[in-house]
Amino acid sequence: MQTQFDANKAEAFGERLLTALNDGALCLMTSIGHRTGLFDTMAEMPAASPAEIAQAANLRERYVREWLGAMTVARVVEHDPQTRSYRLPPEHAACLTRAAAPNNLAAFGQYIPLLGTVEDDIVACFRDGGGVPYERFTRFHEVMAEDSGQSVLPALRDHILPLAPGLIERLERGIAVLDVGCGRGKALNLMAGWFPNSRFVGYDLSEEAMAYARREAAERGLGNVTFAARDLSDFDRTAEPGRFDLVTTFDAIHDQARPLAVVTGIRRSLATDGVYLAQDINGSTHVHGNLDHPMGTLLYTVSCMHCMTVSLAQGGDGLGAMWGREQALDLFQRAGFGTVEVHELPHDIQNCYYVCRP
Ligand SMILES: C[S@@+](CC[C@H](N)C(=O)[O-])C[C@H]1O[C@@H](n2cnc3c(N)ncnc32)[C@H](O)[C@@H]1O
Predict the structure, then answer these.
(1) pTM for the predicted model, two decimal places
(2) Does residue 151 have its Cβ closer than 6 Å to ligand 1?
(3) Quick check: is 106 in a domain?
(4) What does DSSP assign to residue 194?
């Protein structure tokens, strides 16, 4: 172990932290740019003054000007001091606008301020233990649905469902499908529209998310999908044996109170020729295995300030988002699955996909 103080190392680390401070601030401004529609507006405009941009986005000029200042020094927006104009180059718009989905990284920027809203509660948990319940995260389901709306929905038919060969044909003929921890039900409503001969059920703890999902299903005139608010912590005992041919979970196991009970229930609820398709965070169970993870710091932070804590708030296991493949494979095996395949998909650097069969 080196004991001498390395001044160069200290200086480099100070610079790294300064960059982190600026980038943290950039995330807040990126979230605002997304929520106010400023990126979408600027992407459609030539170079313009703050007043013109504010008018086009229907926002207050003074705020827009300050935001443009942050965006300019962060090199997101280009500024011409001669004409006092600002421009969002198309190369940057390509990962900042709603039109750029699934490459819209600005949508993910929302997680940083969202986590900030519970910082006081998290600090208290560091001292006293326990967790922060879902209800404290006022915008969670909205942001999560936007996240999976980008990372799951566009890839569902052509990339995710084909991971289980023959599944699309079975869905077309008509099967029973359950989505566990379905959130606002976006994936289920989409599949219900594609496959009218199949029947779809969604379970989630959140009454609010279920109400949203039902509203959307009604708006789309879907008669083959139902949603029920349900705490699945006892799903190992309450699942109806053999009721479903396909069960899916999208990012919904690691923050459960009782992940083993949920997956055991999923196993029980599957028909003998059924399939369980699980999307969950791709990572190693071991910290040293995540040193080069492209989203490692973000995912451990989201885990600590959301996924782990919401589980602990339910008196749960607090597995956390970075539970990793090793623990996932062990869990699926302990739940009674006979075969488990792991896949990665090129569109999704955050998750891996497990295809589990009884
Ligand atoms: C990370 S979100 C994923 C939501 C959705 N699958 C998506 O991809 O948008 C996890 C979901 O699990 C649900 N959940 C957490 N604990 C639960 C429990 N004990 N029983 C049922 N659902 C639970 C949450 O309400 C949340 O909607």
Answers:
(1) 0.94
(2) no
(3) no
(4) H
